[in-house]
Specification:
Layout lengths: L1 E10 L3 E9 L3 E5 L6 H8 L7 E6 L2 E2 L5 H7 E5 L9 H10 L7 H10 L16 H13 L5 E5 L7 H18 L2 E5 L3 H7 L2 E6 L2 E7 L2 H4 L3 H8 L4
Parallel strand pairs: 3-8, 3-9, 6-7, 7-8
Antiparallel strand pairs: 1-2, 1-4, 4-5, 9-10
Helix pairs in contact: 3-5, 5-6
The structure holds adenosine-5'-diphosphate (ADP) and magnesium ion.
């Protein structure tokens, strides 16, 4: 069952006539060379950018006509740099509520920390004193605040050491199972993509070259995909 659908989406010479879909309750990774348009695609899904032509549908509804506040509650996003605001752990968890003029229940904040295996960390702890891995988990917890149906992840493990990378992968896989959330995950690490994917989208120069069950990445006859897998320049 498709939850998000792109129909002939083009954007500013960056995305070219993209048509494809994402399946509900699955993890789709976005792979392809740097500059392929992966981040640009992701920003279209939660309405940070809109297409010049073409349409994007969320559960069959064109997102162009949807209320953006509502859309961003239903579609959570986490970036590589895990941007933290100054202040406490609570302040950071509360951010998705604060931007809508609401406040996160403290009990719920503690539950969320527990969800990402940070149960022992006090809510009033200064965010600056956390490690990179802890901050990354806070940023994942933060995306769960509004109980989204879709999680968009952009290179969230790029700055972590290998052990933390694996921990974050396990965490996302577990959360995906527990909440049955649909995950769309950009990664430049093909091995990570192989580990976590159900499905894949392969982009290059703003074109969607292939998508579907992730096994295509190692079995495609497409010379571009073969070259990418071999680590050659495209
Ligand atoms: N704000 C912007 N203004 C103009 N061009 C941009 C902007 N952001 C990205 N681009 C260009 O769009 C292309 C795709 O970028 P991006 O979506 O970030 O690719 P990826 O995430 O696959 O590395 C790149 O050529 C990049 O230079
Ligand atoms: Mg990017």
């Amino acid at each position: 069952m498709s939850i998000i659908e792109f129909k002939n989406v083009s954007h500013n010479g960056i995305l070219h006539n993209i048509t494809g879909h994402f399946s509900e309750g699955r993890i789709t990774t976005f792979v392809g060379p740097s500059g392929a348009g992966k981040t640009t695609c992701l920003k279209h899904i939660n309405g940070l950018l809109s297409p010049d032509s073409g349409d994007i549908f969320f559960r069959g509804e064109n997102i162009a006509g949807m209320d953006m506040i509502e859309l961003r509650k239903r579609i959570g996003m986490a970036f590589q740099s895990a941007p933290m605001i100054g202040g406490t752990v609570y302040d950071n968890l509360n951010l998705p509520k604060a931007i809508f003029g609401e406040a996160l229940d403290e009990k719920r904040a503690v539950e969320l920390l527990d969800r990402v295996d940070l149960g022992g960390i006090p809510l009033d702890k200064n965010i600056k004193s956390l490690s990179g891995g802890e901050k990354s988990r806070i940023s994942i917890a933060r995306t769960l605040v509004n109980q989204p149906e879709v999680l968009l992840l952009d290179e969230i493990t790029a700055s972590l050491d290998y052990r933390m990378v694996k921990e974050v992968e396990r965490l996302i896989l577990r959360l995906q199972r527990e909440y049955n959330v649909t995950v769309i995950w950009i990664t430049h690490d093909l091995d990570q993509a192989r580990r976590v994917s159900d499905d894949m989208w392969f982009l290059r120069n703003g074109e969607l070259i292939e998508f579907g069950d992730a096994s295509f990445i190692d079995h495609s006859d497409n010379p571009l995909i073969k070259k990418f897998v071999e680590g050659e320049e495209l």
